[in-house]
Amino acid sequence: MASGSSALDSLEELDSPTDSGSDYEATMKGTKRRKPAVSKQPPKRTRHNAALKGMSSPSGSSVPTPPGPSPQSVSQGTSMQLSARSVRSMNGESQIISAKDIYDAVCSGKSAMVTVVDEWLDSYKRSQEAGLLVLINFIVQSCGCKGVVTRKMFDSMQNAEIISTLTKEFNEDSVNYPLCTPGPQLKRFKAGLCEFARVLVRSCRNSLVYDEYLFPSLLALLTGLSDSQVRAFRHTSTLLAIKLMTGLVEVAVVVSVQLQTTQQQYNTENSKRAHDRASDRLEELQATVKELRENREELSSMMNATFRGVFVHRYRDQLPEIRGVCIEELGLWLKMDPEDFLNDGCLKYLGWTMHDKQSPVRLQCVRALQGLYQEKEFIGRLELFTSRFKERILSMVLDKDPDVAVEVVNLLLLIQQRTDEGLDEEECGHIYPLVYASHRGLASAAGGFLYSKLKSVITSHSQENDKANNAAFFQILISFFIQSEFHEHGAYLVDSLWHVAGSELRDWETMTTFLLQDDELMYEEEGVLIELMMCAIRQAAQATPPVGRTQGKKNLSMKDKKIQEQDKRRITTHFIPLLPQLLAKYSADAKNVKLLLKAPLYFDLEMYSSAQWLEKHLDLLLSQVCGIVEKHTEVAVLEACAHLVSALSSDCYTFSSRAQMAFSQLFDVLTECFSTYVNDLLQGIADDDDTYSGATALKRIAALSSAKDPTAWKLFDSCLELLKSRMESRELDKELIEPAMKCAAFHLMWAKVNVVNSKPTEAELKRLKKEVRSFCRVCQDCLSLNQIDIRDQAFELLCDLLLLYSVGSVRSKPALQALAHLPSDSLRSELAAFLLDYIFTDTEDVELHGILTPTEKSEDEEEMKIRLLQKKRNQLAGYCKLVIYGVLDLTAATDVFKHYNKYFKDFGDIIKETLSKSKLINPVQSAKTVCLSLQQLFSEMLTEHHSRQDLTEIRDLAKRLAMSFGIDLHRVRKPLVALHMDGIRFAFRDPQEGEEPNPNVAFLEILSEFSFKLLQPDRAQLAEFLKSACPSAALSWPPVKLYQRSLEARATSKATEQEGDDEVPSHDMPVVKRRRTTAQGSASTTRGSWLDNSSIQSSLHTPALTSTVQKQPAKRIASRKPRPVESDISSTLTEPESEDEFSPGLQMRKVKLNKRWLASSSKNTPSPRQQDLNSHLNLLSLIEDDISERDEDEIEDYHSDSDTGYTLPSTRHTSLSVLDELFD
To answer: What is the mean pLDDT of the chain?
Structure first.
C-alpha cells in the first residue's frame, strides 16, 4: 500500500557511510522540546511536524482524537487491576512511581512488569511531563549513570544539552554498566529491559502511542543517546530504541490489517446501489479509514525516524553486542512486516553483516535469514538476495566459529528445500565433506543436509515400500562414501547421520541380505557396507560418538540407556545365527573378516547360554575363528581374533569353558606345527619353506598369547634359543625374530601373573628370574641392530618387562621380592642412547626410505609419518614410565627434559606429564634434575662450539621449564632454591686441566630465567650465596650482573613504583599499553580440492563496520592524551577516527605526558581554555574505546574462508586421553 511503501522509501539511499543523521535527528536536536497541551477537552490532533516525519505534509487538516487519549481516561491496553500505590495516587496522595522503582522491577525480572507499566501510565496520565521525566531518569539509571535529569533541566535544556551534562557527570565506579555486568544478573536485567519496552508499547498501542508527545520525545532522546561516545549510553539506548521499534512494528502490522479490513468494508458498502446504502455506516467507515490511515502514517514516521536515526548507524557500531541486537531485531521486522521491510533496501544489511568480524553478529545474521527462508511466501522476494549472497553463504560453512557454521548449514538446507533453484551439485560439494568434521554439531548438521539430499533422490525414483527405500538408501550411501575418498572414517559418517537416519542405519536385515546374496554388490561396495554396518553396530551398542567427537563426559539418561539395551539385544538376536555365515563367506578376505570379527564384542554374549539352540551357533562361531587363525598371518586379523578369544574365554560367561577348550585345541595344533620345524631352525638346516611355516605358526601363537596363557606349552626355552642362535649367526629374519620375541615376552608376563596368584617355590622363582635376565640380555643386544622393527620391538618389550619386574611391583609381596630385576648400567646407557638416536631425531625420511617403495611414497608418506610419530610417542612414554616408577633414577630424565622445547609439538604433553609426576615423587630432586639437564646442554655447547644462538635456545628451554613450576611459589620454594644453588655452583666450579678459568659463568644467564619464581627472602639469600661463591672480580662480569639484576628485579620495581607514586599520581601518569596489530596475509589458504573451483568472495562491496560517532575537530593536544589504567576512574583515552577503527594494520601514536608538562600545569593557574581541556580529558574517561580490549575482544580478523576449514578426525591417533593411555 502507498502509506506502507512510503514509510521506508528512502532506504536505498542509506548505504552511504557519510549519511550521519536525518531530518528527524537534526530537527529534534536543534529545536526546543515541544510541551504537551494542557486542556480538559481532548485536543485536536494536528498533522505531524517535519521534525517527526522527516517530510512535509499539509498542516490544515485535523481529525478527532480516538477514544481514550486524554490524560484523564484509562488506556485500553492497561490492566484494570491497579496496585495499592496507584489507588493511593488516584485518591489524591502525592506518592507516584519513581525511576528507581521501575529500575528495581526491571532488575528483578519479568514477573511484575505489567503492573509497573500500569503504575507509570497512571502517573503519566496525571502529568505527562512528570511521567516522561520519570521514564527518562529510568533510562539514565539503566545506563549505569548516577546523574539525574531534574525538572529544571527538562524544561530548559534540549536533548543534546541534557546528554552532554549527563556525560560530564557520569561519575562511574567501574567500566561495567548494567548491560555488561557479568553473571546471571546480565541476562535478568536485559530480559527485564526488553520486556519493559514490549509491555510499554503494548499498553500504549491504542492511545498514547498517537499522542504526539510520549513516543516522539522518548525516541528523540534515545536517538541522541545512541550517538553518544559513552558506551553505556550508546548500548542501552540502542537496545531500548530497537525494542521499541519492534513493538511499533507489531502495532503497525495490526493497524495495517485493520485498515485493510475497514477499507474492504467501505468499498463493499459503497458499491451498493444508492437506495441500499447505509449513509451513517458509510460515514462511520470513512472516518475510521481516515483515522487508521493517519495512525499508520504516524507509526510509519516513528519507524522511519528510528530506522534512520538508530539502526542505520548502529548496525555497524564498533561494539559487537550493539551490532548483534540490531541485526536480530531487523530479522524480526523483516518477518513481521514484509510489506515495509522485506525489500532489497533492508536485506542488504543482512548481506553486509555476513562479513562481520565477530561471530555472534554473523550468527544473528544467519538466524535472521533462517526465519525468512522458512516462510514460503517470502521466497520470491528473496530471489535477488539469494543470487547475490549465495556464494558468501556457501563459504561460511568453513566459519571459524562452529556454531555459525552449524547454522549456515541449516540455512543452506532451507535454501535447498524451499527455493526452486536449490543448490547444484558443485554447491552441495561445499557441505558434503563436513560430515567428517571433528565438531559433532557441524557434522550432524551436514549429515542432515546429506540425508535430505539422499531422500530426495530416493523419492524421485518412487520406491514402493520401506525395504526398497532402505536398500536404495544404502546403495546411494555406499556410492557417496566411495566417492568422498575419506576411507577409514566410516564411524564419523555414521555418527553424522545417526540423528536423522537412525532407523535406516539400524536396518540390520537389509544390510545382511545385501552381504549374503551373491552378485548384489561389487567387491569394493561390499567392503564399504561391512565397514558402515560395523560402525552402526558400535554406535547402537555403545551409544557414544567416535573418538574426537566426545564433548566431555556425558552420562546417558535412563531413556538412552533403555534404547541402548534394546539395540544391543536386537543386534545380538539378529547376528548370532548370521555371523558364522558372514565369516565363512569372507574368511579369505583379510580386510572384511577383520571388521566382522569385531561384531561379537558388541553382543549381549549371555544370550548364547539363554537357549540351547543358540549353543550350536556358538560352536560355529568358535570353529570359524579357529579356521581364520589357521588361514591368516596378517597382524590385524590375528589381533582381532585375539580380542575375540579374550572376550569369549572370560570367566564371567557360563560358556567360557567351551571357548577355552576350543582355543586350547587350536594352541595344540599351532604348537605342534612350530615344534616340527624348531629343531631345523636351531640347527640352521631349515629351508625357506620350513622357515616360513615355523615363522607363521610362531606369529599365530604370539598373537593368541596376548589373550590366552601360553605357559602350559613351555615355548620360552625354544624361543630364547632361537633368538640367541639367530643373533650369533646374524641371520636376522624379521618374520621369525619378532614373533619369537613376543612369545618369550608374553610367557614372562603370564608367568608373573601366575606367581602373583599362586604360591610358587623358591626354585620356580629363581628359574623365572633367570629367564627374565636372559631375555633382557638378548633384547639389549637387539638395541644396537640396524633392523628397525626388531630394534623397536626389543625396546618396547624391555620397557614393559622392566616395569613388570621392578622393585615397586613386588614391594607388597615379600615372597616375590627375589623376582625384582634392576637394569644394569650398560642397559641404562643403551636405553638412553636409543632415546637420543631414534626418538629425538628427525629421521622420518630415512626410515620411510627403508619402508616404502617409490610408488608408495607419494601416496602413503604422510600416513607413515603419523604412524612413526605414534610409535615414537609410545616408546618415549615407556621410557618415562621407567623413570616415574623408579626403575631408572630421576636423573635419567635429563635426556628427556633437554628436548622439551625443541620437540614440544610432538612430545610436549608426555614430557610435561613426566615433569609434573617427578615433582610429586621428589620436588627437590626434580628441580635439580631440571638444572642438570640445562647444565648438560651448556657443557655440550662449550665442547662443540660456543654460539650465542645456542645459548638463546637453552634460555628458551629454561623459560619453558620455569613455567612448569606453577603459580604456588610457597610450594616450590625449596626446589627453586636448590636449583639456583646447583646452578651457581656449576657456574663457578673449579676449572679442569686445560680449561680457562670460570668457563661456565655464562650459565647464570640461563639460571636467571628461574628468578621470577623466587620469593623475596630467597632472593636475598641467593644474592649472598652468589657473592660468597664467585670471585670478587667476577661481580662486574655481564652474566653475573644480569643474574644479580634478576634477583633484585622485584624489589627494584616496587621501589620504582613507590617513587612514581610520590612524584606523579597514577591518574596523571597512566601506563601506556602497546596496541596489537594483526599481520595481513598470514592466513592459510590451504583448501580441499572440493572447494578449489569456486570463489568465496562476495561480488558486493562490504562496508566498513565502523562507529559513526560524530566528533569534534581534532586538536593538537589530542596526540598527548595518555592511555588509561583500567582501575583508574579518571584515566584518559582517546577514540580513533571511525573510519580507521577496523583497519587491520592501524598503528596509533601515543605520547606520554612528561613530568615537566605536568609540573608546570600543576603550578600555574589554569586558564579557562585549560579548564575546558581538563574537563574534556576527564570526560574522555567515560568513553569506552579501550583499545586493548577492542583489539582482543572485537577486532578479530575473520578467516572463516581459509584458516579454519573442517578438521578430519584421525582414527589412528588422537589427543583425547592419550596421556591416560600412555601412563596407565
So the answer is: 79
